[in-house]
Design goal:
Layout: E1 4-9, E2 16-20, E3 23-24, E4 26-28, E5 34-36, H1 37-48
The structure holds zinc ion.
């Protein structure tokens, strides 16, 4: 059984971020804002600027 609790909206896309079975579907930033993994990965991709 999975417990799925809404934690708060992503600060970037506004999508609700859930805590599923104790695992947060995103990251909590220093200022207590929440960012979903989709946006987080996008940010990391931009920071790395690896290109292809
Ligand atoms: Zn997002």
């Amino acid at each position: 059984m999975k417990i799925r609790e809404p934690v708060g909206p992503c600060i970037d896309c506004g999508k609700m971020v859930y805590c599923v079975s104790g695992f947060l579907n995103g990251i909590v930033l220093d200022n207590h804002n929440i960012r979903c993994y989709d946006c987080h990965e996008e940010m990391e991709g931009l920071e790395k600027e690896e290109g292809e």
